[in-house]
Amino acid sequence: MARFYVLDVPENVGVVDVARKDDHTTVDRIGPYFRITAPETIVIDRRSTGCRHAVWYSAVAGLEGSVITQHDKNALRVERRADG
After folding, report:
1. Does some domain include residue 36?
2. Which residues of 21-52 are buried (b: 16+ CB within 10 A; e: fewer)?
3. Residue 53: which H helix or E strand, with range?
4. Distances (CA, A) of 26 to 9, 17, 21, 37
5. What is the 8-class DSSP label of residue 23?
6. pLDDT tens track of the chain, all 84 residues?
7. Closest to 10 (Cα-Cα) out of 78, 65, 59, 62
């Protein structure tokens, strides 16, 4: 599974909203974090989130069994780690 965490603060709500719209992605809560999970790959388009660059680059609070393969001005791509 591809999985990453986002702190539940108003600035990050756009990331969570975009993830929720993806049929292959599950969003749930773990303490003060949103956990975003998908079977293989999670792709979040930055423009769809409405996040400014500073928020965008600081939104990921942690990974679980995953690697970030893209995190630029266009998108965040989190993929299942081959050994995870």
Report:
1. yes
2. eeeebbbeeeeebbbbbbeeebbbebeebebe
3. helix 53-58
4. 19, 11, 9, 5
5. T
6. 999 999 999 999 999 999 999 999 999 999 999 999 999 999 999 999 999 999 999 999 999 999 999 999 999 999 999 875
7. 59
Query: Would you say residue 33 lies in a domain?
Result: yes
70 within a domain of the structure (yes/no) = no
The total of structural domains in the chain comes to 1
- Does residue 63 fall inside a structural domain? no
Question: What residues make up the domain containing 20?
Answer: 1-43
